[in-house]
Amino acid sequence: MDNYMKIFQGTAFSSKSPKEIQILKDYLFCINAEGIIAKIAAPEDSDYQLLLDRYQGMPNFHRLADGQYFLPGFIDLHVHAPQWAQSGTALDISLYDWLNTYTFPLESKFSDLDFAKKVYNDVVSTLLGNGTTTALYFATVHKEASLLLAEICADKGQRGLVGKVVMDDPEQNPEYYRDADTRTALADTEQFIVAVQELAKSTKQGVYPVVTPRFIPSCTDEALKGLGELAAKYDAYVQSHCSESDWAHGYVQDRFHKNDAFALHDFGLLRDKSVMAHCNFLDDHDVDLFAETGTAIAHCPISNAYFANSVIPIAHFQVKGVEIGLGSDISGGFSPSLYDNIRQAVISSRMLEDGVNTSLPASDRGVPGSRITIHEAFYLATAGGGESLSLPIGRIEENYAWDVQVVDTKLPSAKLPIFNENENLDDVFQKMMYLIRPEHIREVWVQGEKVHSR
Ligand SMILES: [Zn+2]
């Protein structure tokens, strides 16, 4: 029998397919020194008892208490780390005012490393406490502060994918907050990539540099082209915003006479390691291009309700085979919790299906076939996110990283409404998806290491 670093016993929920979960009732999970799930044993398996005999009672054996469950750690595909400092404010104004009155002045303050350290420490801890084990971050234009965010992720044990933001067009960006010029933007990005790849060598859970044009409107053609070349040279992740709102979608059509997706592709920015936020206005050709290139969508349902002028047809996109995960879009989305975004993804899809304008007859009001279930939204926050990043995360399965949350449904101060000791576990799962708050998340593990407990 192999030697395992840690053994866990308990009931876990994980996606089997986009529509179905699997329930691993009272299984054993054996974790190796790299933090990977090396073996999973069901109670009926022949070596289950052998493993129990060998490990039970040892310091590295962990058994869940009654009412506790394992869930995969969540994967947040779209976070603006600096904007955590303004989460929950200014959501009643237009995107233009939101950017110019609040967001750009705030982001410009991250030239101050002391301020950056305060906010970044807090946002990484907060996300971990909400069960987010992997996050794809926009930092700011500042190279040093962006590297600091990567270091904080490395230090706190979160799997961080971090981008130094590029916004170099002097016509489109305020003088107090943009790259000095195109050459500097590209040089800073390259130095940032090299520094994060160096940091990754000593980071167990991984930390990754991300090529990050803010969105097409903020970048010159030369910068977009140079960033595509850097992504190819370093085989790096790419993130940006794509076809988010009427304005953003229309801007790119006016400038390039094509949709965002094809314009980004022309600059080499749609790759297997690309994740594009929002994408509400993609047409079928755009979605096919995403599927062909392996580009993923970061669906940000709370943010969309404020800034996207629309509900994304997520069920339709899923059928077309494109990879999709969930994003909080702090602070366009106010919540650091992917539980909140799972709930909103379902709610928004229901409103798209039925429609909302009661002056129309029911038959004309909505878009049939648009709803997704809570199981599908859970898939987006977990396995869908892992596939989007092409990493072995988001599932509780052999050869996946031990990235999990331990949730407690029997917390005395916040018990979930489970009154039957033998309640159907799928019903328990649904209650957890709708009712869990941060206090129910008792432990969070990343790559086999405990990174949060309360
Ligand atoms: Zn965003």
Q: How do the helices and strands line up, and which of them pair or pack?
A:
Layout: E1 6-15, E2 21-31, E3 37-41, H1 48-55, E4 61-63, E5 68-72, E6 74-80, H2 95-108, H3 113-129, E7 132-138, H4 143-156, E8 159-166, H5 182-200, E9 207-213, H6 221-234, E10 237-242, H7 246-256, H8 260-266, E11 274-278, H9 284-293, E12 296-299, H10 301-307, H11 314-319, E13 323-326, H12 338-354, H13 362-365, H14 374-381, H15 383-388, E14 404-408, H16 425-435, E15 441-446, E16 449-453
Parallel strand pairs: 1-4, 6-7, 7-8, 8-9, 9-10, 10-11, 11-12, 12-13
Antiparallel strand pairs: 1-2, 2-3, 5-14, 14-15, 15-16
Bound molecules: zinc ion.
Zinc ion binds next to strand 6.
